[in-house]
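User: I'm preparing a small set of examples for a lab meeting where we compare how different chains pack in three dimensions. I only have the primary sequence for this one, and I'd like the structure in token form so I can line it up with the others. Please keep the answer compact; I'll paste it straight into my notes.
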Amino acid sequence: METTAWMQLHSVMNAQQDSRPFARATLHRIAAFARPHRRRIAQFVLLSVVGALLAVATPVLAGRVVDAIVAGKDPGAVVGLSLLIALIALGDAALGLLNRWLSSSLGEGLILDLRTTVFDHVQRMPVAFFTRTRTGALVSRLNNDVIGAQRAFSNTLSGVVGNVVTVLLTLAVMLTLSWQITLLALVLLPVFVVPARRMGSRMAGLQREAANLNAAMGTRMTERFSAPGATLVKLFGRPDEESVEFAARARRVRDIGVRTAMAQSAFITALTLVSALALALVYGLGGWFALHGSLQAGAVVSLALLLTRLYAPLTSLAGARVEVMSALVSFERVFEVLDLKPLIEEKPDARQVPDGPVSVEFENVRFGYPSAEKVSLASLEEVAALDTRGGAEVLHGISFRAEPGQTIALVGSSGAGKSTIAQLLPRLYDTDEGAVRIGGIDVRDLSHAALRGTLGMVTQDGHLFHDSVRANLLLARPEAAEDELWDVLRRARLEDLVRSLPDGLDTVVGERGYRLSGGERQRMTIARLLLARQRVVILDEATAHLDSTSEAAVQEALAEALEGRTAVVIAHRLSTIHAADQILVVEGGHIVERGTHDELLAAAGRYAELYRTQFSNPGQTATRITAGAEAVA
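Assistant: Understood. Below is the structure token output for the 633-residue chain.
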């Protein structure tokens, strides 16, 4: 059988078996995505029909050539028919290229629409979504599932339309030539269809197993090849055992590959044999009819050629539902992500922050982290069922106010709720009760752009993208000029370092900035904060993991960053918050103490206890930030 026929059979063999019913709502959503491409889809279908007509025309003309030769007609007639066959072949080739262009442009256009829609939707999801979701599983939705959905248009659609037309025309022509041979040929159809479906199920199972193993290997490599993962393996891992386990998985993938290749080879060999037997039947029975004068020799040739174009489309149509369901599953997995509702939505009439210095206020704020069912999917977490925990209140009636230009410090035990308070200001989460205000306006009434333009945050990990110094800085303000970049680097005590780098501003800092030291990464995030020129600053343990030298450099940069700005500072090192306008002691989601450093020491409460614990070692002294900087780390 010809190459295209085997390709159709191969697609049936490799289709995923799925017996779920069609989801009408899913079909409507697919139609909505396809609507902008309806003109190209119509052209695509039309060309598929024309291609099917040409596929049937060639065998008929070949038979007429044989009849002309047998009848001893004028050679010109034979040449004319041959030229017509050649023209059809040329037309079919041109049509194939055009159809391929339409198929690829349609498929890639659909991929573009789906990917951008999913990407934009994922960007609107809350931080809780990303803390639960496995990155690889999410990326798979943007790659594998989107491509699987695209095949519904570029492959399945044209295949079904073209195959239906091909089968109907082929059967019509074969019946006109010899209904007896046609019926006998159809009797052999189950010999094609049944093995195709059974082998397809077996092949699909092997492919699923191989895909799962490859995904597991990919996840393992991603974790071990990242800078933190590689460091952990070198410190605590067992390289020999890691190698043995990886090799075992790789061998299983190899074995499945060999089994898949042998199963496919056996299947193709068996169908080739059956095809040869079917052709033998056509030639034998057709030749007998021809010798007895009830059938022309050309009709025998046409029937043989048409037979080769009949079984593959019939087999493909028999598995068409499998292919459609496979594509439908991909669409459903994409829509599953789109159906997750973002918890943080911008109001249609969102407001802007007033000009000038702004205050920060928490009024009786109560908050509990959302449960998994509100922000995640079991398939994205790669678990059987979502964690049912969550929703318990962790902040209980938090109230405080920072006047424009003031610094509020949050201290307390780990897990007391300090970082949670900080995350409510930039609206990474929304409060359950109460209000968080910037400049007197509830953050839920502000636009996302207004929040980003007003509020900046430096976290303890100092995250940077695997990109250049320039790109990491311009994330804060893309329109900034180069002299502004050097200015903020100077103010962040990084100018000399960046000028010494091989490519200066264009030097790539590595994944998560791991080519820089911890202090350098922190100062880079501070430089980004300075470039953004935001009026409210949040510092969440900005110096928690730095040595004394790095901390001193970061402290100088922070003093520059906080000057004249309203600040909320979280610190475990109490030595860094003496100059704060107000210190809040947070324990168990409550503010248990508030006041200045001297007031809280005089009160001899929880703050004084924490302070004595940190500075109980002989010779240890507190490092104060000068009041002229009006800032703390």
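A couple of notes for your slides: Residues 3-338 form a domain with the ABC transporter transmembrane region fold fold (CATH 1.20.1560.10). The first helix runs from residue 3 to 14.

User: Perfect, thanks.
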